[in-house]
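Supplementary material to the annual report.
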Amino acid sequence: MLWYLFKRILQLIPVFLGATLLVYFLVFMLPGDPLAALCGEKGCTPGVAAALTEKYHLDDPFLVQYVNYLGGLFTGDLGVNFSGREIGSILENAFPVTARLAIEALVFEGIFGVIFGLYAGLKRGKLFDSTVLVISLIVIAIPIFVLAFMLQFFVGVRLGLAKPTVSGTAGWGELILPAVVLGLVSFAYVLRLTRTSVAENANADYVRTATAKGLTRGRVIRVHILRNSMIPVATFLGADLGALMGGAVVTEGIFNVPGIGSQLYKALTLGDAPTVVSIVSIMVLIFCVANLLVDLLYAWLDPRIRYA
Amino acid sequence: MRFSRISTFASVAAISVLALSGCGGGTAGGGETDSSAIITADSVEPQNPLVPTNTSENGGGVVVGSIFSGLIAYDEDGKPQNDLADSIDSDDNQNWTIKIKKDKKFTNGEPVTAQSFVDSWNYGAAVKNAQSGANFFSPIEGYDDVSKEGSEEDKMSGLQVVDDNTFTVKLKSPQSDFNLRLGYSAYVPMPESAFKDMKAFGENPVGYGPYKMAKEGAWQHNTQIDLVKNDDYDGPQKAKNGGVTFKLYQNPDTAYQDLLANNLDVLQQIPTSALGNYKDDLGDRSLDEPYAGNQTIAIPYYLKNWSGEAGKLRRQALSMAIDRDEVIKVILNGTRKPATDMTAPVLEGYKDDVKNSENTKFDKDKAKELWEQAEKIQPYDTSEKFTVAYNADAGGHKKWVDAVTNQIKNNLGIEAEGKSYSTFKEVRTDATSGKLTGAVRSGWLGDYPSLYNFMEPTYTKGANSNDSKYDNPEFEKKLDEGLQAKDKNAANKAFQEADSMLLEDLPAIPLWYQQANMGWSESVSNVKASWNGTPMYFDVEKSS
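Predicted assembly:
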């Protein structure tokens, strides 16, 4: 088990290097000159343009820029973005906010998705099941920004139950509405996955055995049906963490959450490679770790799975 | 927190019920005006540290404009009023003597002296500091030495301190509107402490103005910037409220939602998506006023079809083939005013009927006729399709570009379409490097209220924003004539003539003048738009 863990962590290194190289290259290849963005609508004088080019090393070839960036990274210096701010301090401020948002969304979709899915799966074909299926289909079909604007307008503006935007501190309470929006589509998927999986396992031989053994209905459902149905759901949730962080770009924009989404978007439009790479690499790392956790979870969910 | 956790079920149900019943909420404000109440206003994260000479975009501009006052301030109509200046005099428009008021202090207690101005201007001009506003110091003698690539110099020979309250400015050549420029934010003074550590200063700027930063770290990045009233400010823009909190939005639609929920007091510009219904939403809590800005389509001269004598005729034909009223009415909800020249209406000296302004009037038949004439000189090369480039990442340009190109297509019978670039950066790269394959959306937002400012940066040879690469010595001579003029009227007359020359050649096709569409909440009043379209925050009154 420990050896397996060690191997997996070792794998993170090439993944990290590959991801940073690829992302840096892609940003570098984006059309347009970052200088044009830096100079803005009204342009800069040739002298200023030259000074900015030197300051941000815009003239260096790709590999030189990348190696410089990596060098800085290993000494703990991520450099500055195009506004002259330390990228490190930007990440320090923005990441916890996005993390709170993603965790809330994950908890929301995980808990509610599993509960609704379990109930629907046990009562399949009944009214609740059909209703839930139809509604989840609708939710999946509607683009996330439409859902966001709808909920923002009705819950935030019309009903006044929550503020339409999040304040600077972006505490757990304020993030509930954006998190629900962010997790809504995945919630529908989790629900459907759980339902299908539960419906399948409910007819399995070991469930019949367990029931015949005289176990209570509750224990059969919790330990035998639900736990065995969790494997596809756990896989989905693990992979979804990455999607949530990506989806946060849209949701954060609409609810004005000061997370990494807006930073990433701005850096991309400016062609600010160091900032984009720093943000994306952390997302990649989180994604890898989440998947590792899911893999470890398999062994706990299904004792037949062993790692060596 | 008044938020109750709602299951998806309940919220979906609630939404459908609400949608059907059209249920509305909202609280009424009212009460006495409270001069210590803090207003909230929308803005975006400033692109650069808040150094006045390095702030050229709106996000930083509104903050810098609130905490730094210069020699003069512009009133609602763009008329200059003395602020820090006691007098600004010149006999020849080339040698200026500037006296400043005595005993003014920056908000950290340092005195505002003639030296503060000279140091700030030198700092802004020196290329080693790479300030985006450097260009504003280019008329001053000695600018060329400090702005040369790689120059380490940082003292312009044209600036001399006479005593604590007087300094002189020697320009390279006479500039009749030099005094009018001095209200632009690049010309404000910075305290001595700024130059010791500009990086720290950019985070926590200190100036002399209607407001000051609320405290160390009042700029909470990407979230908000807190300003409070500067009680020691004694000028024409004294604040009638206790401060401004700029909430930094990522998305203009979001700010509008906040305004509807009375969660935001002043909204600078109603987002495009709400232009159709904001009057219903806000009623008399909105305004719609022209400001010093315009929208044009610049057509580069390096395109084969659009140069020479035939090109000129085609440009005129194109301009007459656009029904500006129609586009404004249908696409822009009537929120713009058709342009009849290259400048903007709120400026002193603006005339809506300068010579050749008929080239901006819709006339399908005349357009066709001019086009035919051009055909005789040089046939239109159909392999070079007419496109109008725009950036799709902001601003909602697609709709009007499509409408305008459609009109061109229908009225002139040529292929015309919009060309979308995914980012602003890409359009600007092609435009500045002269690699456009068609026309580009362009325009100007005034830095200071002068006709000259609308023509020099956009249509003179080698200027930063000359997208069409227009080069006309006659026109530049006319501009110079205006700059050298002895009095304002003579200057404006020369500028009008220069304007007419542009309207004949049409390096860019003027489309419309911009209008400020502001909205405000139920708790504030007295919201006005300044000459350049930003709210005059200091005048806003909030009730408790």
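Chain B has two domains: 9-265+521-542, 290-515.
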